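Open question from group meeting: does this chain pack into something compact, or does most of it stay loose? Before anyone orders reagents, we agreed to write out a predicted structure and look at it together. Recording both the input and the output here so the notebook holds the full record.
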Amino acid sequence: AVVSTQSTGVYDVQYKDCPMVQSDEEKAQTILRWCLKEPHHPLYHALGEAQHNFFYRLNTLDKKMYMGNADERDVLRPGVAAELEMISDDIMNYFRNILTVLHGCYPLLKELSQDGQYATSNELARNFYSPFLKLLVKMFATSYEEEHTLYQTYLHRNASLSVEHYLDIRENFKVDYSVAIATLRKLGDTHTPEEKMALLVQSNQEIPECVYNHHLASGVSEEKAREVSCMGADDLVPVTIYLIAQANIPDLYPELLMLYSVTPEEKLKGREGYCLTNFQNAVFYLIEEQRSFLALE
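Structure tokens returned:
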């Protein structure tokens, strides 16, 4: 790919002797990989400064929490949580601004398909978040340590239980959810909020698909299987709790908090927000169930 700068600051991209660069995803990745390794590119410097800034702020919070004893950390926790929310908001806005600058430099990117747009955002996010994403998730776990501990204790207590043990799941929905569980487990292998959100959406969509396929295989008509697989929130949340327990992802709770904090409001109003809310509701419910269980012991 040959990239040249015009006097307007817009970059002209021409693909020469690159027969393999065909899809929109490949075009987006080629552009991003070029400008993020070119020291004279403005995006290269903007990204580096942001990474240093956010890592420093998160690392400072991390050190603050672990300099004191347990009682002192409890006193600090509300203030740290509030500061973490501000940092997350800054991260979200800075990433959105860099993406806007990128589209300004490369008008071609705005013309790509939906898959190409996702590839652009995800490739940028992969570079942007790489120095501090794990630290960001860790700080959410630290800021909400009590809830995180309750979540992990619930997993330890319920990870081995089959779907038959979940009394809140109706008989019609006690089916094999291994496909949706396998998708959710991939969350630990992801490197960007975009990838994590995409897996939540996919797993959420696979829940009714598992129900549909189960009943279709039992011999009912397609229409009946489709009717049975329709799930409201009252049915979806208990099934999602079962999925979470089976997937057994130790840091899913802080991952969800992180995703909510760095996802733009317009996305939270759409499909991504609906799926994220479903997983959050399931986690909040199981945390309260674990809290009640411990209170009875």
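Observations to bring back to the group:
The first strand starts at residue 2 and ends at 5.
The mean pLDDT is 89.
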